[in-house]
Amino acid sequence: MPEVSLVLIDRLLAISRALAGHIDPGTAFRATAIEIGTLIPHDHIDLAVLSHDGRMHACYEAGFHTSWSELAQHPVEGSPIRYVLWGKTPYLLSDNALVDDRFHFAGAFDEPIFAAKLRSRIIVPLRARGSVIGALNISRHEVGCYTLADVAVAQQCADLIAPYIFALIQTEEARRAMLAESEARNRVELLRVGASQLTEGMERERRRMAMDLHDQTLADLARIARQLSALRGQGVARAAQLADLEQEVAGCLTELRHIVDAMRPSVLELFGLRDAVEAHLNRSVSKAKPPIAVHIADTSDGCADSLPEPVRTALYRIVQEAINNAVRHAAPRRIDVLLASTASVLRVIVTDDGQGCGAIDPAAHGGIGHMHTRAALIGARLRIGQAGRKSGGTRVLVEIDRQPSRELPAAAAATMPGELAVSEAM
Question: Rounded distance, CA 173 to CA 169, Å?
């Protein structure tokens, strides 16, 4: 008996040495699997580790892998070993798990037991800080391989590796939390800078609008007023003079309508995103030389129009800027817009066959920088790149969850520089 104990102690020390130096729980466990196999021969061995709230568990396998480790986490309530994970039984010992009802119940994720023919099984808990944090699972293909003595040895192995695995998992969670916090701070700072740039751009645009209205529209209206005053003084107006005045008034109305439409996209409000994008697309290329062919397709079943109004407006502004950039700078022969969706995501893609855009800096100022800022403010993902390896051109993809999880800052839907003067894109 002392000789057996010395062998066990030697093997447990070997397991301890195998753990040393590893910083990943999966790698650390796989390093111990061979040493555990010298004590308890097995065809399959895995480690189930509970999440912080105890509702889910991850699986680390050594040797061949099953579908247990394909997903990041599984619900504990569907685990064949849930009673060990819940602490309701001190262990599970089975001569043939294929026909053992303890592993099979409605909703059980038991497919790997049959696929891998895991008949003889030992399941013992991993404990740390007085609580069950997971389970060690040891299996063989043959029937009736294990005894209660093997259960005791398995528990000693589990007790040895549990604190180390627990420490590694806690360290990994702390590292992920630090990274998430750092990324969140970076996002907040980027949004702060972006919103500041957006506000500055809007203020510049207001000043430009005021100058345009003063220098052009108001000047035109003042001239019309002088002409009307002159005609009143003459007491009579010729048909040609009235025609000139009518043309002047129509020009002022057209200019004001462009400004108002750009500031408040009424087509979007009345008819939805698809029609608003199509209207802007057609208007943008109407005076292009040489002509630009356009095509818009909507396979999203109109799901964009179920989004909150600020989100929908922000999407429209991003697509509007993408179309404007293509018309102004890329000299394309064709522009395509696609609206598509899945059960959870809406995608809008603007593609042109023009000169391409080169490397894109998301932090850049101007239209592209504003697109990235607006996308970040509504929680959308924006990617701008080459349309194709051979065809060149530019592809703008904006993707957003169909159920946004947070409120949209008002600035995200506001008008940006370059969006008011629609005629500039023509």
Answer: 6
Three-class DSSP category at 127: strand
Would the pTM count as exceeding 0.85?
no
Phi–psi pair at 138, nearest 5 degrees: -125, 130
Is 202's pLDDT higher than 70? no
- pLDDT tens for 141-160 read 999 999 999 999 999 999 98
Q: How would you label 126-136 residue by residue, b for 16+ Cβ within 10 Å and e otherwise?
A: bbbeeebbbbb
CA separation for the pair 210, 419 (Å, rounded): 15
From the number of C-beta atoms within 10 Å of its C-beta (0-12, 13-18, 19+), residue 117 rates as: middle
Q: What is the pLDDT of residue 403?
A: 75
Q: What pLDDT does residue 262 have? A: 58
Question: What is the spatial distance between Cα 415 and Cα 199, in angstroms, rounded to a whole number?
Answer: 10
pLDDT of the residue at 367: 75
Partners of 351 in the beta sheet? 336, 395
The enclosing H or E element of 401 equals strand 392-401
Q: For residues 332 and 393, is the Cβ–Cβ distance under 8 A?
A: yes
**DSSP-based three-state secondary structure for 170:** helix
Residue 332 phi, psi dihedral angles, 5° rounding: -80, 160
